[in-house]
Amino acid sequence: MDASERYEQLIAFLSTHLPPPVEQSEEANGIMVFRGGSPVEVIATLTHTSVIVDEYAVRWGTPTAPVDRPRRVGALNWRRLPESTVMNVVGQLIKGAREIRRSRYRACRFCGRTTPPEWLHDDDVCPGCAEAEMGVIH
Question: What are the boundaries of each domain within the chain?
Answer without folding.
Answer: 3-104, 106-138
